[in-house]
TrEMBL record:
InterPro entries: Kinase-like_dom_sf, NH2Glyco/OHUrea_AB-resist_kin. This is Aminoglycoside phosphotransferase family protein. It comes from Devosia honganensis. It holds the Pfam family APH_6_hur.
Length: 282
C-alpha cells in the first residue's frame, strides 16, 4: 500500500534518528506533531511541516535551533521539512495569567524574552524583516474596519510608521510570543513556534498585551497595561513608550489579519483604545 507524504516523512525520520513508538500528538493547519521515544526512555517530538507553510515554519525552526535551548524548546536536528525537537507537555504561561497570577506570568514572560535576546553569534539567514511583517497593516483598506473603529486603525498605523522611522538596533525576534506559546518544563518556561523575524526588540513584547487568550477583561485593564509596561521596561532595559507603541501597532496589525480572514476583532476593539491612551500618557 502506498504511504501518504506524512507517513513517508515519519518513516524516514524514525530511521534517521533511531526513534521508536511514534504517537500522533496533534495536527494543526501548519504541521503534524508526533511524540516519539528515544532509546526506549526519553520522549521527543517530531514536527512535520505542511507544504503550504514550510517556508515560514522552516524559518522559525532555524531560529529555534539558533536559540540552543536558552528560553526556548531545544531543536536537536532539522532535515527537510521535519524538525526533531524536545518534547514539552507542561502547561502554558496563560494558565497562571488567567488564574489570578498575572504579575507572576509577566515576570516569567520578561525572563523568557531576556533569554531569547541574549547575544549570540551567526544570526540565522532568511529572517523576515519586521517592517515586512507589518505589510498587512500598511496596505489595509480602512473601510474594512467598523466605521466607529477607523480612527483606531489610523492611529495604530501612524504609531507604527513613527516607530519604523526611528529604527533601533535589530535582533532576531520570535515574532509571535504570547502566553500560550510559552510552556512549562523542568528547565523553566520555554518558548515554542517562533515566526523567525528580525527587527526592533521592543516588538517581542507586543503580543503579551492582548493575551492570554480568553482574558479580554484582563488585557483591556489600563492598570494591567501600565504595570506590564513598567515590568518589561525595568527587566529588559527597554523604552517604556516604545514598548506600548509596538503593542498598539501590533493590535492594529492583528485586527487587520483577522478582518482579512473574516474573523471578529473583539479582542483588539477592547484592548487597542487603552493601548493608545497609555501610549499618549507614556
Amino acid at each position: 500500500m502506498n504511504q501518504s507524504p506524512v507517513e513517508t516523512a515519519l518513516s524516514r525520520a524514525m530511521i534517521r534518528w533511531s526513534l521508536t513508538k511514534a504517537t500522533p500528538a496533534a495536527e494543526t493547519a501548519r504541521s503534524w506533531i508526533f511524540r516519539v521515544e528515544q532509546n526506549g526512555r526519553n520522549f521527543a517530538a517530531l514536527k512535520i511541516l505542511k507544504p503550504v507553510v514550510a517556508e515560514e515554519e522552516g524559518r522559525g525552526a532555524r531560529l529555534l535551533q539558533w536559540y540552543e535551548g536558552e528560553g526556548a524548546a531545544t531543536v536537536f536536528d532539522i532535515h527537510g521539512d521535519t524538525i526533531f525537537m524536545e518534547w514539552l507537555d507542561g502547561g502554558t504561561l496563560g494558565e497562571p495569567a488567567r488564574n489570578g497570577r498575572d504579575e507572576e506570568a509577566t515576570s516569567a514572560f520578561a525572563s523568557v524574552v531576556a533569554n531569547l535576546h541574549r547575544p549570540r553569534p551567526d544570526v540565522p539567514e532568511g529572517l523576515m524583516p519586521l517592517r515586512q511583517r507589518f505589510s498587512a497593516l500598511f496596505e489595509a483598506d480602512a473601510r474594512t474596519w467598523p466605521h466607529t473603529a477607523r480612527d483606531l486603525y489610523a492611529r495604530a498605523t501612524g504609531i507604527a510608521l513613527k516607530l519604523f522611522d526611528k529604527p533601533m538596533a535589530e535582533v532576531p525576534l520570535h515574532g509571535d510570543l504570547h502566553h500560550d506559546n510559552i510552556l512549562s518544563s523542568d528547565r523553566g518556561w520555554l518558548a515554542i513556534d517562533p515566526k523567525g523575524l528580525i527587527g526592533d526588540p521592543h516588538y517581542e513584547l507586543a503580543n503579551a498585551f492582548r493575551n492570554p487568550a480568553g482574558a479580554i477583561k484582563l488585557a483591556a485593564d489600563p492598570r494591567r497595561i501600565s504595570a506590564m509596561a513598567d515590568a518589561f521596561a525595568a527587566r529588559l532595559g527597554l523604552d517604556r513608550k516604545r514598548i506600548i507603541g509596538f503593542a498598539a501597532a501590533h493590535s492594529g496589525l492583528s485586527a487587520c489579519w483577522d478582518l482579512a480572514a473574516g474573523n471578529a476583532i473583539t479582542v483588539d476593539l477592547a484592548v487597542l483604545p487603552h493601548l493608545l491612551s497609555a501610549y499618549d500618557q507614556a
